[in-house]
Amino acid sequence: MISPAASPIALADKTTHPGFGTLLRQWRVLRSLSQLELALLTDISQRHLSFLESGRSRPSREMVLALGNALDVPLRERNTLLTAAGFAPVYEQRPLREPDMVPVLQALQLTLAHHEPFPAIVADHAWNLVMENRAAQALYGLLGDPQEFWRRSCGDGPRNVMRALFHPQGMRPFVLNWDQVGRTLLRRLCHEAATQPLNSALRQLVDDIMNYPGTPAQWRSAAPWPLAEPVLSIEMGMGGMSIKLFSMIAHFGTPQDVTVDELLLETFFPADAATEAFLRGLAGVAP
Predict the structure, then answer these.
(1) Is residue 4 in a domain?
(2) Distance set, CA 93 to CA 106, 169, 253, 255 (Å)
(3) pTM value?
(4) Domain that includes residue 109, residue range
(5) What does the pLDDT look like over 158-180, one tens digit per residue?
(6) How many angstroms separate the CA atoms of 43 and 257, rounded?
(7) What is the pLDDT of residues 243-280, one digit of tens each?
(8) Is 193 among the domain residues?
(9) Same domain membership, residue 204 and residue 117
């Protein structure tokens, strides 16, 4: 049975963020756009955009939405832009168990089930585990008692995929090519945090990982090592053998809900024939 875990995250409170003009400028700079470029994208004058950023003009609700779309702002932060401009949020955040979310939940369950006997997970915007298939559960089970594994790596908090990977008592001791994997994934996390400036959970995750014993300080800014392979595989010594996996990450293409917008689906694939045979054997599936 593949079921979602509860991980509600409240929408940002307008009192904790700057005004609309400041937020707009931050997002424009973050997207490396000039005022003229953003004005052209939203079919307004550069002068009007300048007035919006300085606070001399107040945007309409439609203008806030148009700017958020042009800047590719996540839906959670578009709600924050609306609130800062004096409007009510328009994007809901529904739990996966709500009736309106049944098609989304069923799509995720179907994808996870169809990916058996290979691991697949669903995580939220801070890499907290939302769903997993049986193959993922079996893979974690090779590391010891699952409850104890998650307690060691995540404490009493939510089950977090990245904390479990980077924690010295989590998956990290089992990763044979840790220098490559750790450096690359931390750099990706830092990039995600930089492009989501209001995602405090993601920033906290990066800071916590940087404070783990054995995480080199230079990894925060170091570029990943170039490799000869087309994708970086994670190689793990587990179950008495070495297995190699690489992954693909997918998002919903047209999200209109904060929860849906922030979900990611990561599917893992065997990087060699020995790993495929091992995973099929682990699931009791004939070759």
Answers:
(1) no
(2) 18, 34, 17, 11
(3) 0.87
(4) 99-283
(5) 999 999 999 999 999 999 999 99
(6) 26
(7) 999 999 999 999 999 999 999 999 999 999 999 999 99
(8) yes
(9) yes
